[in-house]
Please model this.
Amino acid sequence: MKLLTYKTQDSEPRLGFMHNNMVVDMEDFGGISNFPLPNDMLELIDMGFEVIAEINNLIDDTREVDFENISFPLNDVEVLAPIEKPRKNIIGIGLNYTEHVAESARTLDTTGKLPQKPIIFSKPPTTVTGPNTNILLNSKLTQQLDWEVELAVVIGKKGKYVAKENALDHVFGYTVINDISARDCRREGQWIVSKGQDTFAPMGPFLVTKDEIENPHNLNLSLKLNGIEKQNSNTQFLLFNINALIEDLSTVFTIEPGDIIATGTPAGVGAGRNPQEWMKDGDVVECYVENIGTIVNTVKEI
Model:
């Protein structure tokens, strides 16, 4: 199921899902199905992944004519980040593709050695922005604004000391994230100023439930800047795959429904190019992950 958070001209943000290329309002669908459903993505996740099978059964039992009054063409709504206000910081994973480790060592202050354990950082909830919004370039803070396309994992089940073989049982679904980075804002090896500025986590357009993704470790992902491809890889090249990340993270802290893990970016970032490239005012960046979709954002200098 492709879930989304959206709004119309007349509404506050609402929860919906895609059906026959239309956006169906989740709460309204619950109303016609006599099965109360929430109007918020986090509330739906809190119901447990099992609710997705129930919703799919209800969809199968619903006449197409009954969808008409609770549906909108996708072009008629504003698509927001799937989880507009995460409860906690986004969990970021650094240097998680081998070629990105190498390019970072050439141009940044990293060693070039493959990490033996996941490198973990975080991005505040205020970094989240949706598709078709501006990425804010604060020129007083940075002159080195960079891009990073990533697959993001959304947790659906609480867990502590989760074994690798059980890790995907704790996943609710997947989305696209652009881990925007200000390369000249790192402080003594700490990344939060570089990674944590407002709008530095464009996300969307959908949260695709895990039953729709046959293998999250074989998804193409790519990024274009002003129409020119800069990154192109596949999640099969993750150094630490999703199972390993969940096992490791859950030994450090309890993972909870609604947690978001940005799994790392492949080679091709601006910092790794010769000469280096940085995003500037007016640049348009497109991030794509197979079976999920594309988010497009524009850089705006402030």
Summary: The first strand starts at residue 2 and ends at 7. The chain has a mean pLDDT of 95. The helical segments are 26-33, 41-46, 50-60, 64-67, 98-107, 192-195, 242-252. Residues 223 and 287 are 5 Å apart (CA to CA).
